[in-house]
Amino acid sequence: MPPSILIRRRGLPVTWAASALCGLWLASLAAAHYAPALPQSAIAQPTRQFGLPFAGVPGPDSWLLGQGYGNTTGAYRQRRSTYGNLQGIHAGLDFSAPCGTPVRAIGDGVVAEVDGPHGSPPHNVVIDHAGNLSSLYGHLLGRSALRPGQRVTRGQVIGQSGDSQGTCVSAPHLHLELRDRAHQRFFNPLPYIAADWDTLALAGSFGRGYEYDLSAPRRWQTPDSQPAALRGGRLLNEFARPWPPAPGGAR
């Protein structure tokens, strides 16, 4: 039933009721983002227990790995803005794909949210998995037909890939994250997902790889050596000697 009908039946002023609904939404958003992080000991260790979010062979006409997880140059440039609450790193994997490409669950689980408050608009899905892990599928083309509480199996289509800028031309891609169920810890998905990452990392990147700290130039320079992140923690990449420098200064 539409909320407006409910409001009239209960005799509440529309503006008051709308404000109350908005307040409840903001409260749920705050609770989702400020829940205590789960202890590391309660979270499943990586055993390549998940699969890729796309089927078929990667390539220019299907899908490619666009941006890795972690200390990417793109995240560095936005470490104080877009990624400021994620310790300055890109907290997921970006897969380039034409809009409408079927997105698949990386593992068995239960749908926790459809278009929930955990980012990557315009549409997203969160699935809870065993081991207190959650996967987030962001920038989906439309609202998923799934419902919270519904069980899904690995490889099941859960939506279609979209574009973070809503054009299907500017930035068509899927953003995939692996988190703890409290949505406070963010993990490098590579050791959790069974795939040929060495080959996937060879082509398709729309960035320039990883940001250097010239004081420790080998740190965080490979896809599998990226650090985990904690929501609200200090910036990990506030480097004194960065390379490349952020054009126009750090944002």
Automatic annotation (TrEMBL):
This protein's UniProt keywords: Signal
Domain M23ase beta-sheet core, residue spans: 89-182
Signal peptide span: 1-32
A Pfam family that the UniProt record links to this protein: Peptidase_M23
Annotated InterPro entries: Cell_wall_metabolism_enzyme, Dup_hybrid_motif, M23ase_b-sheet_dom
The keyword Glycosyltransferase appears for this protein: no
The UniProt record lists the keyword Signal: yes
Coiled coil region boundaries: none
Protein name as annotated: M23ase beta-sheet core domain-containing protein
Species assigned in the record: Deinococcus aerolatus
